[in-house]
Every structure is written in structure tokens, then in C-alpha cells.
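Aim 2, interim progress. The first record below pairs a target sequence with its C-alpha cells.
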Amino acid sequence: MDFTLSKEQQDIIKAAREFARKEFRDVALEFDRNETFDLNLLKKACELGFVGVFIDEKYEGAGYGFLEHCLITEEFWAVDPGIGQAIGSATFGAEILLLFGSEEQKKDILPQLVSGQAILSTAITEPDAGSDVSGACTTAVKQGEYWVLNGSKMFITNGDLADYLIVYVLTDPDHPSRHNRHSFILVPRVTPGFQSNKLRGKLGIRASDTAELSFSDVKVPVDNLIGKEGQGFHQLMAFFNRTRLHICAQGVGLARGALEESINYTKKRRQFGAPLASFQVTQFKLAEMATKIRAARNLYYEAAWSVDHGHIDHALIAMAKWFSGEMAVRCADEALQMHGGYGFMDEYKVQRLYRDSKILELYEGTKEMEKTIVARSILGM
């Protein structure tokens, strides 16, 4: 059993860390306060090969695995989660195209994502269908050579930016199985009848675009169906088994950022005539944070390695996802506690980390849903 990363993987980590520290730090607070993001930063990341590294070389990607994708994500989130999410999510949905898209769809869209010429979004969540994805009711009705979409989506990453959207729609509402009623359909932003509204006032990851979407008689060609009709739910589960690894790395990166900030602060901050780091209570907090981060990283390394080697372990992925998210929230909380009143001010990074952390327990499967997956697996249900 070898836990050592390859020289190439170590180089990827080093390059990602240097890029994030150089490019993110001076603009992170501005992006958070204004809920904005400079797309030129995304283009820089694309030029340096940090975007869509899991995309095959024949579609102009780097041809790496999801582990390498996660290594980059961890480094970006350790510096700033908001910017890390804005860059990392630019290919959100490429996994679906790689797994189920037609060759024409892949050749058309994937190279645009790698080069930064286009941004992708996957629209799943609805106002009344979050964890219950089989209850999504945005419809797509086949009329001649077109699909006609009607409905709405909520909390969609890149919804107000994306050039293309992969939309989860109800295509066979009368099918006896709830898991065979939905499909994914590709919708270009410029399609008439599509509208997006940027959501503001988010708790965290404010540099990342989030929007509500509406579809009013949106017509797209029948060839825009991704994979087979009625297989959307199964495609979505395969998608989550890969993107949840990305969330694991986000959690580890954020927690690592919280630990790094805490170490620096407690070494400098003095109380009762001594540095905070000299007190056992502080040392125990730091030790616990470091241990939880290591445990979460090992979980996602194993899960990502397994996926890259063709083995999908649903329970392991769910364990890694809920543990890393919960761990990140706790580490951010401890970091703010150690910073005291200073941590309550937005000039200090830990305040952002504290706000950014909560989403990790919510999106792409709440921690309750992940624990349910684990429980059912060990119970054989």
C-alpha cells in the first residue's frame, strides 16, 4: 500500500498553490464584499492548465483523473473558497458529457471549457425539489424535432454566467418508476424563453455565481438530449459520485486554510504575557484540526483513486463527502474562536472561511443524505 503521490502530482500541487497565493489573496475580500468575480482570473487558470484537468486529451483536456482535479481544488480552497469555487465550477457538468454525451456534444463543448471560451452549468435543484431529485418537475415535451422546456430551477451554480446549461427535466411523468422519468438536455444560454436571475446575499462563496432560472417554451433540437431518454436520475447519481469528490477536496482545503490562519495568529497573539500557541488548550485545538484534516484527506484520496481506477464505492464517497464537510465547519468554527473578536471582522480571513464552510454540508447532497447512503450500505438495505 503506497500513500505517496507521484512527482507529477506533487508538481501539480505546487503549481496550484503558487498560482492561488499569487492571484487570490489581494482580490478575495473585494470579491466577497461585492459578490463579484473577474473572469480574467478564470482565463489565467485555463491558460495554466488548472481547469478541467479530468477531461480527455482528445477534447483538449489534460487527461488526468479526478484525484488530480481534487488536488488543485484543495489548494485553491485553502487560499480562498469563493474564488476556488468560481474557477473550479466552470466545468460543472463536463462529467455528464464525458460519461453520457454524444461525440458531437463532447467535441463541441469540452474544448471550449478547457480554454475558457465557455462556462458550463448543470441545473438540477428546483424550489420544491432539493434532496428529492426524483421530484423535479421542470418538463421537456417532445414536439417534432424539438424538446420544449417549461419550469424553473433554483440555486444553480453559474446560472447567470453559463454559455451552456445541462438541465435535469421530466420527460416521462407517467413512468411507473420514479427513477426513469427524467433526462438531461443541453440548453444554450441564447435560446429564446430562457431567463436567469443572479441571487445575492448568500452566506458564503460569494465570488461564485448562483442564480434562479426559468424556462418558458424553450425549444432545443432533439439531438440535445444527453444519453438515453429516461436515464437522467441514473446519470445524475454517476455525476454525483464524481463531483462529490470535488466537494471533499473543498472541505479539506478550507479546513487547511483555517488551520494555517490559526497557527499564524496564535503564534503572534499574546495573552497573559505569552503567545496563545503556548497554551495547552490552543495546542489541543490545533492538534485536533490537523488530525481531522488528515483523516478527511485520506478518505477523499482513497475515494478519488478508486474512481480513477474504475471502482465506484458509493458508501466511501458518501463518507468522504459528509465527513469532510462537517470537519470543515468545525475547523472554521475553532479558527474563529481562537481569533476571538478579531475573527468576527471581515478583514480577517477566518470570518470568510466560517461563512464559506456551511455550504459544504448542503450542496450536492446534504450530510443527512450522505449518512443515509452510508447507513443503507452497511445495513444492506
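The second target in this work package is listed in the same format:
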Amino acid sequence: MIECRQISKRYGATAVVEQLDLRVAEGETLVLIGASGSGKTTILKMLNRLVEPSSGEVWIAGQNTRGLVPHELRRQIGYGAQRAGLFPHFDVARNIGVTARLLGWSNERIERRVDALLERVQLDPERVRHRMPESLSGGERQRVSLARALAVEPRVLLLDEPFAALDPVTRDALQQSLAELTRELGLTLVFVTHDMAEALLLADRIAFLDGGRIAQLGPPEQLLRNPASEQVAEFLRAPRRQASRLEGLLRPASPA
């Protein structure tokens, strides 16, 4: 579904992404993870041409994206930005339905889709449908952004830290909901996160990035068993340490 052929992104003499080759199968969930500045978000934005590669090619569903009009390409791909990216002068319903309206969906179809998606991201349509983004919490804005990304039933979904602003309970519920949606709809998902536990739970494969290159690519169990570098191993230690500390809290105290 997605193929990157030797894509690079340079700003002057600085290479943010360097000659990256990557394939994502139809229906696969690929998680991009790595330290800040490793190129995760840049790669994501090159897939829908929010950022143009300095060199190389991106192919989506067998088409070279350089031959497509950028805004028409983006209407075919769901995109959830890191900081929600909602239009501040549109209410929630209009934000979610904006692409559907551009594609000529009827008002009735858009209304049904908006309400269904709000329920999927655990927001009450009656309560939030006509609210403005500024009146929502950060977590609510992030959920509206996810609903908007799913609005026109895309085959490809790109998400950049979509759960970063959510409380743990909502985050866990939405992670499960997203996993169910990708299976039900056969979505091809590329997902950026800093959270290794989230990557391990959601990914079919994980691409660990270091300096704009892939340091390791494989299914979660492969990274857990055979980390390719000390940096990969350190990222994997964090969820293990957290789990160990939680288990320690649950153990009965030793008698005095």
C-alpha cells in the first residue's frame, strides 16, 4: 500500500531523513518510534506531501505521489496531527466533516458520519457537536482530530502522537478502539509515537529510527528478543522498568 524508495529530506546541509526505503503492506499497522529529531514526523508528512522529499519517491496504492495533485492526495489519506490541528473558526461537526463536504457528500450523510465517529472516540455528539475547538480540553481536541482523520473512510491513515494529550484510561480505551477500527476497515496505518509500550501493543511492525535512518525494523517480539542497538534496548527497558515497579507496589509488604 505504501512504498518509500530512497527518500531523503534535507534542510541545507542537514539531512533529517537519509535514503530511506520502506514498504507497508495493505492492512498493516507500522509504528515509527525513536528519539526526538530522529525523523519520525518528517517521514509521516512526506507520505501525504505535507513535506516534499528532497529526493526519492513515495508510492501509495501503486501510484507515484509526485504525479498527484497534493490536495487531492491528502483527501484520500486520513491524517491526525500531533497538536490536533483543528480549524479554530469551525465547530466540531464542521471540522470533522470538512473533507467529506469537499468531496460532495450530502449533509445527511455527513451528519450521520460525524455522530458515529464522535461516539467511536468516546465523545457525546449532543454535547460537543456544535462546540468550538477553544472550548474543548486538549484530550477532547485530540479525539476530534482522530475522528476527522477517519471521516471519509480512507484506506491509509497517518497519525502523529494522537494519544499524547489523553488521560491513561481514555488513552487505553482509544488504543483498543483504533486497533478494532483498523481491523474492521482494513486500514493501512502509519503511527508515530514516543511511547514504546504503545508501539509494542499496537504495531504489526515497528521501525526504530535513529538520525533519519531505520536502525531496526521488525515485529514487536523481534525487537524485544533481539534489539539491534543499545539505543533500541534502552527504549525497551522503560516499559519493563515501569511494569516491574508496578508489580513491586502490588507485592505484600514483608513482615517486620
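The beta strands are 2-11, 14-24, 29-34, 55-60, 63-64, 77-80, 156-160, 188-192, 205-210, 213-218. This observation will shape the mutagenesis plan for the next reporting period.
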